[in-house]
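Q: What does the assembled structure look like for these inputs?
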Amino acid sequence: EAGVAQSPRYKIIEKRQSVAFWCNPISGHATLYWYQQILGQGPKLLIQFQNNGVVDDSQLPKDRFSAERLKGVDSTLKIQPAKLEDSAVYLCASSLVATPYNEQFFGPGTRLTVL
Amino acid sequence: AQSVSQHNHHVILSEAASLELGCNYSYGGTVNLFWYVQYPGQHLQLLLKYFSGDPLVKGIKGFEAEFIKSKFSFNLRKPSVQWSDTAEYFCAVNANSGGYQKVTFGTGTKLQVIP
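A:
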């Protein structure tokens, strides 16, 4: 079974620029998560989708971050404009459904550096 | 709001030594508990999980964890570590928040095993 795919793997931008990340979850997984992992910290949930609807975006900085999941499959996370403190690894994960009994499968992440 | 504390940020052990990584959580209701591992250059992956029943759960590669409800703890153990256990370990709590399941990760513990 193919895993969670993410691209790009690395991105370097200057502050105030825009950036977008893409995630393709495991086929059939209804729930998709975006996490931000700052160096030295654990992953922090930014947004959770169930199919193409948002379940939780309470920790998403909505003034600059946006995410969508069209057709309940692929998802994109955008930052516009980026700030220095957005430098982090952005992880995408998916699970069959949003219950605690379903394991989350993580992608390799996108490492963002904002200069 | 739920929170997770991992007290050991960096642990160095010699091969064959015993391992115990601490994890404490803060949440008054029913929780589901996880340990995830990230080997160098690899994705986050599930090591073990607790939902209910026997508080001593066994995971992959000889790891186990014990849920002690009275102490709000879910410590990870392994009797004899190997060099290949060198990785970063994350404790996570899944609890009901506002009608949906929310996962909170700890800050992680980096384990270095010296041959």
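The mean pLDDT of chain B is 92.
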